[in-house]
Each structure stands twice: as structure tokens, then as C-alpha cells.
Specification:
This protein is an alpha+beta fold and 124 residues long. The protein has two helices and six strands. The radius of gyration is 14 Å and the shape is globular.
Length: 124
């Protein structure tokens, strides 16, 4: 099981939850994550999505496999309020060298995402 051991994940205060049969990361809605008044910073949301993708992929690979981002595209759909925000990722395709991963972030309702991401990750 891949842990949230990166300094960035710790700085964001991300918490991992596997209880529903899939990995869900949670970002606390604390003032340190504020962008414009009353809303989460887009970089914090992007970091949450990237970490969800990384952890989901890392859990399927051999321990110690290197994962490096090739490209990341974030689509912001609505402003993230200053409340807990959750993210999960889906592996679209895992090849020998490249993995395609999608991720979504939501707050109160998983059917109403605040952001989504498409990531291409290099597997080393």
C-alpha cells in the first residue's frame, strides 16, 4: 500500500481512506489552503488530484517503482469552498512505460465534481 509520504502531501494535510474499496484522499478545508477569500486555492486542488492519481497507480505497481509525471491537465468546474475536499482516481490504461489516469475532486456530492484531471505518468 503506497503511503502519503511526500513532503507535499504532508504539507497539504492529505488523509488516505481505503474503507469503501477504493482509495479516497481528503484535503482539509483550512485557512492555509485558501486562495481567493472563501475558496480553496486551485494549486491545493490540483495537488490533491495529482496525489490521488499517484497513490492509486503506486498501489498497483511493484513496491519502489518510480512514477514521474509526463503531463497533467486540470479542469476546474466550480469554486471549491473551504470545506473538506475528496479525490479519487481511475486507471484508464497502465502500459509498460506510461500510465493514463483520470481523477476527480468533490466536496459534498461525488456526482458534482469541483475539478477533474487527466494525467500521463511515466513508470520507471
Amino acid at each position: 500500500m503506497a503511503e502519503l509520504s511526500s513532503p507535499y502531501a504532508r504539507t497539504l494535510g492529505l488523509v488516505r481512506d481505503d474503507t469503501g474499496g477504493r482509495i479516497v484522499l481528503t484535503l482539509p478545508g483550512v485557512d492555509a489552503m485558501m486562495g481567493r477569500p472563501g475558496f480553496l486555492h486551485g494549486g491545493a486542488i490540483a495537488g490533491l488530484l495529482e496525489n490521488a492519481a499517484w497513490v492509486t497507480l503506486a498501489d498497483t505497481l511493484a513496491p519502489g517503482a518510480a512514477i514521474k509525471p509526463v503531463s497533467i491537465t486540470i479542469d476546474f468546474m466550480r469554486g471549491g469552498r473551504m470545506v473538506e475536499t475528496h479525490a479519487r482516481a481511475d486507471l484508464v490504461r497502465v502500459g509498460r512505460r506510461i500510465a493514463n489516469v483520470t481523477a476527480i475532486a468533490w466536496q459534498d456530492d461525488v456526482t458534482k465534481p469541483i475539478a477533474s484531471a487527466n494525467l500521463k505518468l511515466l513508470i520507471g
